[in-house]
Amino acid sequence: MKKAASFLVVVAVMALASFLASAYDPSPLQDFCVAIDEPKNAVFVNGKFCKNPNLTVDVDFFYHGLNIPGNTNNLVGSNVNLVNVDMLRGLNTLGISIARIDYAPYGENPPHIHPRASEILTVLEGTLYVGFVTSNPDNRLFSKVLNKGDVFVFPFGLIHFQFNIERIPAVAIAALTSQNPGVITIANATFGSNPPINPDVLARAFQLDPKLVARLQALF
User: Fold this and answer.
1) How far apart are CA 10 and CA 4, in angstroms?
2) CA proximity to 123, closest of 101, 108, 140, 98
3) Neighbours of 100 (CB within 10 A)
4) 26-61 tens-digit pLDDT
């Protein structure tokens, strides 16, 4: 009798675990996905529609181009070539992507977050000062100077950056834990939103004169 009762408990636990697994909401693969009742009016699903496996070919899993240096002639002095599901269709549902990041001398990949991914960075050439900041209330900075072959991890959703501290270009490869990690550059989102955030809001948040905030918004 006890054995039968124990067996029923095990079955019940397994059934509950199975229900929880099937009921788990998948992580979003874009900024938002508003529900719609009529499928013909839908634009996309959470991810991409799957290609018929019988029509799949080798080039669906291939991308060429990460050997090509990116153009770093811009205000921040860096270029990110992200290979996500839009560039490499075989990444769909796999939860990974990769990027080549080029840095001009003293160029940077400015403070930003990936709303849907953690990141692991490997330096291929040059020397980078990198770091991330933890969430409130501590806001701790974890930083390190990386040389060729060094690896650093940026945890999910935290503000992070990379800065080339040398007079020569630098190159890094980043792997991310989403087929579409997304990126929010803090300065661009804060001072370059469309429409602009009311300067009084930013003046209070950053303890700045509203006129200075307006000038910063004009830059973005």
Assistant:
1) 10
2) 101
3) 20
4) 677 777 666 566 666 666 666 787 888 888 899 999
